[in-house]
Design goal:
Blueprint lengths: L22 H12 L13
Length: about 45
């Protein structure tokens, strides 16, 4: 214990801003080079 009582959950994340020709291309890029699908999830949002 480091003196932080009551902490129940911590999450760390990253944001990647990517402009591409289509949403399909964004998913392809995410799956191939941005996300380790064994330990990470991702979502796509339109700006």
């Amino acid at each position: 214990e480091k003196g932080f009582e009551g902490v129940k959950n911590v999450r760390v994340g990253k944001v990647v801003l990517l402009e591409a020709q289509s949403e399909e291309q964004v998913h392809e890029i995410a799956k191939k080079i941005l996300v380790n699908d064994l330990i990470e999830d991702y979502t796509v949002e339109r700006a």
